[in-house]
Amino acid sequence: MNRNDYNNNFYDNQNGYNDFSNAPQFYNDTKAAAGVSMADFSRRVYSWMAVGLSITFILGFAFQSVLSANPLMLEQFFPVYIVSVIVELIMVIALGFFIYKMPSIVSLIMFLIYSVCNGINLAPTLMFAGADKAIWAFAATALLFGAFSIYGIVTKRDLTKLRPILLIGLIVLIVFGILGIFFRMAALDLIISLIGIAIFVGFTAYDTQKIKAGYEYFSGDSEMLKKASINIALQLYLDFINLFLYILRLFSRNR
């Protein structure tokens, strides 16, 4: 799946992930009524995100290594890639619309399958960019993601006001991405990369703040807390992946 596909998927996901308005409400006077503390819920979110990212990047770099050593295998890899793209689309659409209606174990399995497919789809991008640039891009992504995720946790500002700005920016990014397909200009590619990085560091802080909101919203129901943790983990996972792709694009503009 290419960068534009990721952007389109992420934009579609925001309709289902930006708030909890489509889910039942479980406010409770006792915040740990479901036997889960805020700290436990946060650890659960970041643990699932870390598991998903680990699966994706381990598979991505493994396939990249194999394809780089055997370029002729690209033709054989292509059918696997296509199937993976289709499965990935099905998984992310299903999670976006039905995550609060399915058992938490089912949504978790779908998230893990999505992570596997993403790893397969990421391999050609890593191959063409080069392993060295991919590693540096991953390191830069981890630093930026960590910094803005911490900001989302500690800030007293209500970041929900950023949503319209981020969504408009995402639409602009997609338009620029389409233009970039037809007009191969270094300046345009640089603009696309910088806008993409700016948008997804914004989404990182914005989605991090949902951890507290999700905990408070579902604090009276342990099953809904599990679903919410997977939901938010997927959002943060997507933020990291998209941020990585635009940083990698910035690093490999000359290739």
What would you say about this model in short?
With 255 residues, the chain is mainly alpha-helical. The chain has helices at residues 3-17, 38-69, 74-98, 104-129, 131-154, 162-182, 186-208, 210-217, 222-251.
- β-strand amount: under 5%
- Poorly predicted regions are 1-18, 24-33
Helix content: over 70%
Tally of strands: 0
Query: N-to-C SSE series?
Result: HHHHHHHHH
Rg calc: 18 Å
Shape: globular
Total number of helical segments?
9
Distance between the termini: 19 Å
The description of the largest β-sheet is: none
Q: Report the mean per-residue pLDDT as an integer.
A: 83
By secondary-structure content and strand pairing, the structural class works out as: mainly alpha
Number of domains: 1
Description:
- The protein has 255 residues and is an all-alpha fold.
- The protein has one domain (3-251).
- It contains nine helices and no strands.
- Helix 2 (38-69) runs parallel beside helix 4 and helix 5 (131-154) crosses helix 9 (222-251).
